[in-house]
Amino acid sequence: MGGTRALAERDRTPQVAIRLRAHWETRLRVACVQERSFGPKKLWWKLRRDYPRARVPCVRTLARWLKAVGRLRRQTRRAKPGPRLRLQGRLAGRCVNDVWSLDFKGRFRTANGRMVHALTVRDVASCYVLCVQHVPRPGEAQVANEFFNAHDGDPCF
Predict the structure, then answer these.
(1) Number of domains in the chain
(2) What pLDDT, on the 0 to 100 scale, is given for residue 87?
(3) Dihedral through CA 136, CA 137, CA 143, CA 146, nearest 10?
(4) Which long-range contacts (CB under 8 A, 24 or more apart) does 87-92 make?
(5) What is the per-residue pLDDT across 32-90, written as a single tens digit (0 to 9) for each?
């Protein structure tokens, strides 16, 4: 059929992708010049609005093209810190080991399939977690049992 030339390595790049990029890259650059502060999502909406009958490449493809040109930089967004609540009176915990707090952190299954509830003991002043203890069921009796009948060698209580 093709002899030894047919056995040679051929280009594996999909030709549709090359044509698609050539078609949209100039339009994308024009949109970037018009709207300098837009990222890939807003540029996608702009291209979709400007060319309503055409199939605009997805946002991820536009982001990849912008990154290749050097027009996209990654931004990290952080949640704004919430208000700091000051506890009144003796719960304020002015020094370390002044006040401890106990809290259940929810239930979950362990690797062996057992359902446990995590009981945490935390120092209020330093916010240091002193202990995390697995309790079979949440309740006053279970917490009292963990505190008053502490096992020998248990480093938690």
Answers:
(1) 2
(2) 58
(3) -10
(4) 87/124, 91/124, 92/124
(5) 888 888 888 999 999 999 888 888 889 999 898 888 888 877 778 888 888 877 656 55
- Domain with 130 in it: 90-148
Residue 2 lies in a domain: no
* Run of H or E including 20: helix 15-34
Q: In this structure, how many other beta carbons lie within 10 angstroms of the beta carbon of residue 115?
A: 10
CA dist 62 and 54 (Å) reads 15
Tell me which long-range contacts 142-149 makes (C-beta under 8 A, separation of at least 24): 143/102, 143/119, 146/119
Residue 118 CA to residue 13 CA, distance in Å, equals 53
Provide the 10 A C-beta neighbour count for residue 40: 21
pLDDT, residue 79, reads 85
Question: Residue 1: what pLDDT?
Answer: 67
Q: What is the DSSP string of 85-126?
A: PPPPGGGG--STTS-EEEEEEEEEE-TTS-EEEEEEEEETTT
